[in-house]
Design a protein that fits this description.
Elements lengths: L5 E6 L3 E4 L4 E8 L14 E8 L8 E4 L4 E6 L7 E11 L4 E11 L9 E11 L3 E10 L5 E8 L4 E8 L9 E7 L9 E7 L14 E13 L7 E7 L8 E3 L6 E7 L16 E2 L8 E13 L16 E5 L15 H11 L18 H10 L11 H11 L17 E7 L2 E6 L5 E8 L7 E2 L7 E7 L2 E7 L9 E7 L6 E9 L7 E4 L5 E7 L7 E7 L3 E9 L4 E10 L2 E7 L12 E9 L2 E9 L2
Parallel strand pairs: 2-8, 9-20, 9-21, 18-20, 22-30
Antiparallel strand pairs: 1-3, 3-6, 4-7, 5-6, 7-8, 9-10, 10-15, 11-14, 11-16, 11-17, 12-15, 13-14, 16-21, 17-18, 18-19, 22-23, 23-28, 24-27, 24-29, 25-28, 26-27, 31-32, 32-35, 33-34, 33-36, 36-37
């Protein structure tokens, strides 16, 4: 009995965006019929969408990943301003479906970048039990002589230890002080007032804060409590109780720049538009007070922690805290053990469905468990979960090549691996040892599974089919790796059209390799469809460069029954229809035939069966 698909998640969900910005909605559906553990599936999902009303000046698109997940993308034009209902639909092969709807608004409002003076708080990520330096940013078009800034913070997860001034232009302020304020005085949270005067009336001259964009004024030094639950959002916010709160002085001391607005409705930068509530602080006409500053709570990430929460394109000004349990992916309490690799393997191969059903594998897991496992899988701490870079680091730690990473790992360069396609085989040429390879291959039909090359013997070799996608994982668990050289990696058996959509590889020491496809001048004969056939056949192939091509069709005696001269073809994928007619314009009789494609110096042959 077929079980219907079910909605899992959509992010970021409802939102208001500015015209010209990129709107992205990442959606995940599940289907219990797609679950492993036997290694094969009997169902797969197709994603579609509707947008009501239809936009008048732009065209959205939906990328279907083939595994129940997808990405809706839309860049609305100014003519598309208005309110929309986006429906994301998953339909299985039996016609059953599930739908989730998202409310989208498109507007043309000013963003925080329209304010010349800005104080900004950004999003940062941290682990429980550690000490962090949280920056406060200033943008100023003219020199600033001093400031007074008032900020409150969530003391249930953060303990303020210090405030450290940043060195700007080689100088620090001649007067710099901070005053902790107890909860209930200016806000329900505790707060801190920070005051700085760049130059005092003395014999020493210190230049003012120079004009700049997003310069760090100071750091709030917090101890993060050790018992913080997963994904805890620790709020940090500007507080305005009176005119002097969060103000800047010019170099004459005659003009005070004060906030006119707290938060901003939308962001007008290249990174997108984010919905925020506007809170107007005040307006006036005094020549001594310039109402020209915005207090910006969010919109950006603290440097070094970009994309620490990739599902959130509109970050708030706060600190996201997670338990320091990196490496415990299977949630058994032990970090960096073989069970974590096995669990990671099953996730990549699609054997586990991320849902809240405790009866599906892994049995007993809820969405909260999955959330913790995702966090613990981020071995390289770059904010992206269950990726190949995490897996190669995990195996490198278990194999004893490296110690568990203690901080974010950026831009590891592990050399190059090149791959090429010869018929149904994948060949590699690597200049460094390879300890892990992950492949995602799109198929037009089911296959029995890959035939692995001898070079992978002794390594973990696993595979699974999810819908129309073959996933393959080759992994070292006992220091067995693929040595530098040229190798036959594997073969995809059968007369099937296939295409590699992802190829990742890593070294024993946890570095990712740069993967290059080298088939630039080869011919790839991808198949004849359908096969066997009764009427028309589609002959598909790929050219690596512009070539003169022709197709010959032989019977079993070697006689050419049909010749198709295709002329000069551009590089890329091609599809040619054969209507089963011979050179004599007669219907070819049933039996076995051979289809040969010639392109330049390259030649490829496939067998085809004609039925009555």
């Amino acid at each position: 009995m077929d079980r219907p698909p079910f909605f899992v998640s959509v992010a970021p969900g409802d939102g208001v965006y500015g015209a010209g910005s990129l709107i992205q909605e990442s959606v995940v559906f599940g289907d219990s019929d797609m679950a492993c553990p036997m290694g094969h599936v009997t169902d797969f999902l197709t994603l579609s969408y509707y947008l009501i009303p239809e936009p008048v000046a732009s065209s959205p698109e939906l990328v279907d990943n083939g595994d129940g997940s997808g990405l809706f993308q839309w860049t609305p034009a100014e003519e598309d301003e208005g309110s929309y209902t986006l429906g994301l639909v998953a339909t299985d092969i039996y016609g059953l479906s599930d739908t989730v709807e998202v409310s989208l608004g498109v507007c043309a409002q000013p963003g925080y970048l329209d304010y010349s003076y800005r104080l900004q708080l950004r999003h940062m990520c941290a682990f429980s039990g550690e000490q962090i330096y949280y920056p406060v940013y200033l943008t100023n078009p003219e020199p600033v002589a001093g400031y007074e800034i008032l900020i409150a913070y969530d003391s249930s997860c953060l303990n303020l230890q210090n405030v450290v001034e940043n060195v700007i232009g080689g100088y620090t302020s001649e007067y710099f002080a901070y005053n902790p304020i107890q909860p209930g005085v200016v806000d329900s949270f505790p707060a801190v007032r920070v005051v700085a005067l760049r130059d005092m009336a003395n014999a020493t001259y210190t230049p003012p804060f120079p004009p700049d964009t997003d310069q760090v004024l100071f750091y709030l030094v917090f101890d993060v409590y050790s018992d913080v639950p997963p994904n805890r959002k620790c709020d940090i916010k500007f507080i305005v109780n009176e005119a002097g709160d969060n103000s800047l002085s010019d170099t004459s001391g005659l003009v005070l720049h004060v906030p006119v607005i707290l938060d901003v409705a939308v962001q007008n930068s290249d990174s997108g538009y984010c919905p925020f509530e506007e809170y107007f602080v005040g307006m006036g006409d005094s020549s001594a007070i310039a109402w020209d500053m915005a207090l910006v709570d969010g919109f950006d990430w603290v440097e070094g922690w970009t994309n620490c929460d990739p599902l959130n394109p509109c970050p708030l000004g706060l600190i996201t805290v997670n338990p320091a349990l990196i490496g415990d992916i299977n949630l058994n309490g032990d970090r960096y053990e073989i069970g974590d690799v096995v669990f990671f393997n099953k996730y990549l191969l699609g054997c586990y469905i991320v849902d809240d059903d405790t009866l599906t594998p892994p049995v007993g897991w809820t969405l909260q468990d999955w959330g913790q496992s995702r966090i613990n899988s981020d071995i390289n701490m770059n904010g992206f979960y269950y990726e190949m870079g995490d897996l190669v680091l995990l195996t490198a730690v278990i194999n004893g090549y490296i110690n568990p990473p203690a901080a974010k790992i950026v831009n590891q360069d592990g050399g190059v691996v090149k791959y090429s396609l010869k018929g149904n085989r994948i060949y590699i040429k690597n200049d460094e040892e390879i300890s892990a390879i992950y492949l995602r291959i799109k198929l037009d039909r089911d296959v029995k599974g890959p035939i692995f090359g001898e070079v992978t013997e002794g390594m973990l070799r696993d595979w699974n089919i999810i819908g129309n996608e073959l996933r393959i994982l080759i992994l070292s668990l006992d220091n067995k790796s693929i040595l530098p050289g040229e190798w036959n990696l594997l073969e995809i058996p059968g007369d099937v059209y296939w295409k590699i959509v992802e190829f990742s590889a890593g070294t024993p020491k946890g570095a990712l390799l740069k993967v290059i496809h080298t088939d630039k001048s080869d011919l790839q004969f991808t198949g004849v469809f359908p096969n066997p056939l009764r009427e028309k056949a589609t002959i598909k192939f790929v050219l690596g460069k512009k070539e003169h091509a022709n197709i010959k069709i032989y019977d079993v005696s070697g006689k050419i029954v049909k010749r198709l001269d295709l002329g000069k073809l551009e590089a890329g994928e091609h599809a040619v229809i054969w209507d089963r007619k011979t050179n004599m314009d007669k219907r070819a009789s049933s039996g076995i035939y051979f289809v040969e494609i010639e392109a330049g110096l390259h030649r490829a042959v496939r067998k085809v069966i004609l039925m009555k």
